[in-house]
Design a protein that fits this description.
- The protein has one domain.
- Helix content is 33%, strand content 20%.
- It has 4 helices and 8 strands, in the order H-E-E-H-H-H-E-E-E-E-E-E.
- It has a 6-stranded antiparallel β-sheet with strand order 3-8-4-5-6-7.
- Helix 1 crosses helix 2.
Length: 199
């Protein structure tokens, strides 16, 4: 078979996968935007929650809860996914909180744990200062200073100058849409779709 035919065949095989990923990313962006209609008070308190599919009270949350709730709208339970991976790979996750075993109430609500999970099972993307590198459905993590981490979702809404996509996150004012992609130091950039974990 001529080389050009091999290349065409390969392209045809990859195209459905690319469309599926794009479709999921679009759905994740839509889910995140939907969350901005929900009035939420920033509350970093520890909550005992159900498992699986547990959530803190609907009117409360932090930045990680935006990610968890957006994925849950697409039937992906990050509480369960992260808990099971930490349970089986405890030493591969950060040990910043003095824990000696997994905690299904809080592990998925910590940015460093989500970063580890997305690194293990998602696609790690380029960290840059180029707006075009960040597209709807991407997950971005920042260092706010003093090792305080933050996380949000890139959504399909452009900044007022049209130069970059905006972020849905919760940094204290609830689940909001803001033009803040480059407002803090980016330390993580990922995409994650459930089947990525099914290796």
């Amino acid at each position: 078979m001529p080389l050009k035919n091999y290349l065409l065949y390969g392209l045809l095989l990859l195209t459905p996968l690319a469309f599926a990923q794009t479709d999921f990313a679009r759905q994740l962006s839509d889910a995140a935007l939907k969350l901005t209609a929900q009035k939420v008070e920033y509350d970093p308190a520890y909550f005992t929650i159900a498992y699986p599919n547990g959530d803190v009270p609907k009117n409360k949350g932090v930045c990680t809860d935006v990610i968890i709730r957006a994925y849950r709208l697409l039937s992906v339970d990050l509480q369960k996914e992260v808990h099971e991976d930490i349970k089986n790979n405890f030493k591969k996750y950060p040990n910043k909180w003095g824990l000696t075993k997994p905690d299904k109430n809080i592990d998925h609500r910590r940015v460093p744990n989500l970063m580890t999970f997305f690194t293990r099972y998602g696609l790690v993307k380029t960290i840059s200062d180029k707006p075009e590198d960040y597209i709807p459905g991407d997950i971005v993590c920042w260092n706010l200073g003093g090792n305080v981490t933050h996380i949000g979702i890139v959504v399909d809404k452009k900044s007022s100058d049209g130069k970059r996509y905006m972020i849905v996150h919760n940094i204290g004012a609830g689940q909001v849409l803001e033009d803040c992609l480059f407002s803090y130091k980016i330390i993580g950039h990922y995409t994650y779709k459930k089947q990525n974990a099914e290796k």
